[in-house]
Amino acid sequence: MKKRSLVVALAATAALISLPTSHPSAVAADALLSQGRTATASSTENAGTPAAYAVDGSTTTRWSSAATDNQWLQVDLGASASVSRVDLNWEAAYGKDYILQISADGQNWSDLKSVTGGDGGTDSVTVSGQGRYVRMQGVHRATPYGYSLWEFQVYGTSGGGSTTSCGTANAAQGKPATASSTENAGTPASAAFDGNTATRWSSQPTDPQWVQVDLGSVQDVCKVDLNWEAAYAKDFQIQASADGQSWTTLKSVTGATGGQASYDVSGSGRYVRINGTARGTGYGYSLWEVGVHTGSSGNGGGPIQGGGDLGPNVIVVDPSTPNLQQKFDQVFAQQESAQFGSGRYQFLLKPGTYNGINAQLGFYTSISGLGLNPDDTQINGDITVDAGWFNGNATQNFWRSAENLALRPVSGTDRWAVAQAAPFRRIHVQGGLNLAPNGYGWASGGYIADSKIDGTVGPYSQQQWYTRDSSVGGWTNGVWNMTFTGVQGAPATNFDSGPYTTLDTTPVSREKPFLYLDGSEYKVFVPAKRTNARGVSWPANSGGTSLPLSQFYVVKPGATASTINAALAQGLNLLFTPGVYHLDRAIEVTRANTVVLGLGLATLVPDGGVDTMHVADVDGVRLAGFLIDAGTVNSDTLLRIGPADASADHAANPTTMQDVFVRVGGAGAGKATNSVVVNSDDVIIDHTWLWRADHGDGVGWDTNRADYGLRVNGDDVLATGLFVEHFNKYDVYWAGERGRTIFFQNEKAYDAPNAAAITHDGIVGYAAYKVADTVNTHEAWGLGSYCNYTSDPSIVQHHGFQVPVKSGIKMHDLLVISLGGKGQYAHVINDTGAPTSGTDTVPSKVTSFP
Known about the structure:
Elements: H1 6-12, E1 16-17, E2 31-32, E3 38-41, E4 63-64, E5 72-90, E6 95-103, E7 109-115, E8 122-141, E9 148-158, E10 177-179, E11 201-202, E12 209-228, E13 233-241, E14 248-253, E15 260-279, E16 286-295, E17 314-317, H2 324-335, E18 345-349, E19 352-360, E20 365-369, E21 377-384, E22 400-407, E23 413-415, E24 424-429, E25 432-434, E26 447-449, E27 452-458, E28 464-475, E29 481-488, E30 500-503, E31 506-510, E32 514-518, E33 521-526, E34 529-533, E35 545-548, E36 552-555, H3 561-569, E37 573-576, E38 580-583, E39 587-589, E40 595-606, E41 613-615, E42 622-629, E43 635-641, E44 656-664, E45 672-678, E46 684-692, E47 708-712, E48 718-725, E49 732-734, E50 739-747, E51 759-760, E52 763-764, E53 769-771, E54 778-787, E55 796-797, E56 801-802, E57 809-818, E58 824-825, E59 844-849
């Protein structure tokens, strides 16, 4: 919009409306587009009323401006959208006269509607326009205070924009610039953005140092040009930020040699930063010029391309990579205790031999070999998970993984002291494996699959563990629940007197898809289904399929659900690179045999109460390697496999869900009625942790409300390695026929306020695992449920497990435990089994039921 006075603008605008007193019915296709998006404002009243609070979904937080007219609030929808309605929930300091505006670029604005004579409360304004940015431009206040909005909500449909190529203009030239330091007054930050290659910015001679530019508005950044002076950066990151405080790495560069270079990137931000971490000389960092190129993010201009680079947080190395240990150490230093942080990293090791490496893995860090077989990538060293960050307690070592490589530990034994959501897959340990932390503190894991451990596995303090389709040289001791299926060398069942449940084979299994290098080409290997498997699937890898990366949409932070769904509709698979992805609509997987694979615990967050992902009732979908983090507005179902009326037979080619984890709360208040619902038949759930948070941010009986962890309605569903904890009602509710579970670990919700809050149908406490009364056939092995009722230790839960008493229902090796006497169980299953034993933390068991 051209500059003009707001009064003139109002007079010239014909679309004056009277304000309705209630919301009109929304068009069915309309979605809430603004929730959780980046918001900015002309001013804020104070630090407690930022722009972000107007789009956070909470009516107890607000944005408020300085106490003058002509103030504005705007939201970046993330992509071009067709906008149909704007709802404004005013606080007492409301706008009497204001204009709703829309923009494609955040700079040139068009009016949607002008409102005069407002009376506060909630305004619901019908509009029509296309753009990425929507703004409330205040004209006159109704009170002496500023403008104040509890919520600013924009509705419509995403998409409709057009794709443009990366711009040739330098969007950074002449824009305001700052730096961490300057060498002297003659080398200011601005000199790197003045278009003059005879002037330069240079820093002090220390690491790290940075220079950044303010583009003036959030824009899609597609390429960055760097012209280094002789004092160059050897290692650096190109980063972007919406607010100049929280940064996303668009590209990490190591081993650079200076000179001129251009880097293709993908992301958005108002600020772009070059963050140097290692200098190439003894001097500081010095840049003649930095060029930033921008373009639009719509996908309507042509087909989405498969393949491409793997993004900034995938670190690909080979045995000749310099300072490799330093790279592991740097990521570990950042991620060691970042339990609810936003960093996500994937190390990919090209085939070869790596000597003297100790890769310590912190939160959201994964390490994988890029060979077709584990022995193609040999580490003469260690991959270590320990618990020094938590005073030797390993019960919170979540969200990390190791896959597809061989390991010869320096001491002869590798340490892998993990808790839930930390898979150890397709690993050849040429020695022993210690699953306990240094000092043998508490530990609560874990999962091994398709792995060969030549030596002995020592769980020691591990409370429970599941191992599938592997081989071990031996297994020593255990605490409560150690379950094995298809494991060569596994101990014999001794559940009457010990912790072991052992099945000779796994009924049905299919290993997780994985990325590998075929020469210089990335491919994803998709293993075939195995029946009655025993031992590892490699090196033969028989029956699997290799898919080239060109058949995958390589998803990077900033991608929208609209683009992701367009890629799926086009026939592409999905490879999520490490990052956090906010979604304004569910990802719709509708094609048989689609692969959805995450790297580095890629995290999907549904905004505005949408579901995260729906899978159609089709054959052979593979979901693997990602985390779903519930949003602040309640979602009905975070992951749904099959619609409610699913009925197709998928026995020959089942859908698999592997290393897919769900979190409700912990990283902030989140809510979801159901975490995972399985409606399709024959689905294999192979290692999941569905967790309603008991610690972290946004935790409380109603704050992170989540009634159900897993609901199974499909028939012939198999779960191998099922971890489900702390849900407000049933952790697992199984209504499908012929279901089977091998290994189940559970804790009941710590924060149940009292017995009345969890009493239903005359029963105190919802069973951790309930089989519906209508089911006739069900079987399960190796199940444990623990109570730790910290809010009311007097609660006596009736039972851990509840099933109908029928000849086709068979439950094997069940236990319940009171953790230190914080609550008790009266029975193990139904009305059977002895009560738990006070404060002794000793299992109460039932070996067979009925």
